Amino acid sequence: MSxxxxxxxxxxxxxxxxxxxxEHAEIPVVATQDPELIRQWAARRGGTPxxxxxxxxxxxxxxxxxGGAGIRFNFPGAGPxxxxxxxxxxxxxxxxxxxxxxxxxxxxxxxxPRYRLLKMESLKEKAKVID
Length: 131
What we know:
By secondary structure, the chain is an alpha/beta fold. Helices cover 21% and strands 26% of the residues.
């Protein structure tokens, strides 16, 4: 995908789960709340769950201004955030009613690390979501 925003105004976004990830293949940007699909996406890119904010598991490490979600991924060669376990990452994900938005993998290309974490309400305001 180009350097433009992953979510342009009124863009169509497919909401997927592990079992339906291949559906709507013509739609390049998809969204999910499926923990297994999120873990698979991160694993394909060498990503690990992380945060910059203080939590029960440790102190703040990076000043993050994202509306309170505070969760991220560290990737090989770029890991400025404090690693956290998956259960903590998903607790935060659910507490903030987030949805994980990402670009589909393109055959014969390095998987894109681009993603966004949005509140479900915000995604529905920004895009046309189809199941």
